[in-house]
Design a protein that fits this description.
The protein is an alpha/beta fold. It has one domain: Peptidyl-tRNA hydrolase (Rossmann fold, 3-Layer(aba) Sandwich), CATH 3.40.50. The chain is 37% helix and 18% strand. The longest helix has 24 residues. The radius of gyration is 17 Å and the shape is globular. The termini are far apart. The relative contact order is 0.19.
Length: 214
């Protein structure tokens, strides 16, 4: 008797979360690129997100690419407690962890690079540590957006904090606009064909500042 290969279930996100910090002083900082991603998805899909006290975040639901029902979330708990807000949504709607796609900033990726994965560790990111803790697993997809490392310093805590909580310069802002448009494409591909297929596209492209002027 021959074993028939079992077809791997597609991982299709049902809840998309962008990590960041509330308060105007954190707006448009590198650490809030996850919020910026939710904002552009919200505009692209015409799904408004508004404050939802039960979910401790800004939340919205609607129909996205491929006619899929989708939920968007920006936790308002501050980065270190992001998992509380995410768990509130997953518990309420009984969503499995693997249906949660988390978008956040990554210093270990150069600016202009995105990396989509099906699972993985927190990699020192406090928002992800909280998410993994509250979902009791690291088996959920994540899309990391590169913000690069601080230039010309040894990467001590002080320079790291000022880097992630700093804002992009004009050229970087232009670059990140392109990256965020690409993020929309990556997420839509994940919804239509599954995260694994989308990884081939999302992990192969790099945007750079030099190409903007050409």
């Amino acid at each position: 008797m021959t074993d028939t290969p079992t077809q791997k279930a597609l991982v299709i996100p049902q809840l998309i979360v962008g990590l960041g910090n509330p308060e105007p002083k954190y707006d448009k900082t590198r650490h809030n690129i996850g919020f910026a991603a939710i904002d552009i998805l919200s505009r692209s899909w015409k799904i408004p997100v508004t404050e939802n006290k039960k979910f401790q975040g800004e939340y919205g639901e609607g129909v996205a690419a491929g006619n899929k029902k989708i939920r968007l979330l920006k936790p308002l708990t501050y980065m270190n407690l992001s998992g509380q807000s995410i768990q509130a949504v997953t518990s309420w709607y009984k969503l499995p962890p693997e249906s949660v796609l988390v978008i956040y900033d990554e210093m270990d990726l150069p600016i202009g690079k995105t990396r989509l994965r099906l699972s993985g560790s927190a990699g020192g990111h406090n928002g992800m540590k909280s998410t993994i803790s509250h979902l009791s697993t690291d088996n959920f997809p994540r899309l990391r957006i590169g913000i690069g490392k601080p230039k010309g310093v040894a990467g001590d805590d002080k320079s790291t904090i000022s880097h992630v909580l700093g804002r992009f310069n004009a050229a970087e802002n232009q670059l990140m606009s392109e990256v965020l448009e690409f993020v929309v494409q990556c997420v839509e591909l994940s919804l239509k064909q599954g995260v694994e297929k989308a990884m081939n596209v999302c992990n192969s492209k790099t945007f750079n500042i030099e190409s903007l002027s050409s």
